[in-house]
Amino acid sequence: MQIYVFSWGSRCARRRGLLALLQAMVIIVKDQSLLKMLSVGHKLLVGNCLMIACLLLLSSCAVQAEKSIAQKPSLLHAPLKKFHPNMTHMSVLMPGSPSEMKDNSADSRKFSCEDDDACFSVAEQNIDSYDLHDQKHLQASLDRSVNQAISAMHGAPNKIAAVSLAGDRYPGREAEGTLPTPFGEDGQFRIRIYFDVSRKKMYCIGIIGFSKEVYGPNVASFLDSLEVN
Known about the structure:
This protein has 229 residues and is of the alpha+beta class. The chain has five helices and ten strands.
C-alpha cells in the first residue's frame, strides 16, 4: 500500500505545497520589519520566488479547471464496474479504469485506479512462506500482515478487526485510520486482507483519500465486492 500512498499523495500535495510557499512569500512581503532585515539581493529573490509561485499555482489551477470543464466525476462517486484481472483468482467492483502496477513481481499482482480524491487498489500475493498449519499461526500471520501494511504507510489505525470472506472460508483483517501527508493534511485509509489457505494466497483491497467520503456508500460497495474465484 505504501506505493499507492506516495505516488498518489505526492501529486495531490503539489498544489498544497505551492499554496504554502505563496502564503509564506506574502507574509514576508506584508511584514515591513522582515523586509527591512533583507538585503536588496534577498528582496529580489523573494520577489522572484513570489512570482514563480504565483505562476505555478495558476498553472496548477488551470489544469484543475480543464478537468472540471470535462466534468469527469470523482472516483468516489463514479459507477463501479466488475474487474477480473487475468491470471488471478479475484474479481472486484472498481471505478474508473484500473491499471496494473509496474512493481509487480512473480509473487504478486497489484492493480489500482486513482484521481486527486482517492486511490482504489486491489492485490493478490503468494504467501508460500507463511506458516498457516493451525489457527494460532494463521491468526498471528493475519495480525502481522495487516500491521506491516499499516506500518509501511506510516498509518495510525483507529480500528483493526477480524473479518472473513465467503462465510468463514477466507479469514482476514480490516483496518481503518489516518496517514500523514505533506503540509499537515491527514489522509484516510481503509484496507482489508484475506488469506486463501488452500492456495497460499493473500488478497488485499483498500482505498486511501483525503476526504471523509472514503467512508461513503460507494466505497463500502467496493470493499464488500471482493470475490475469490
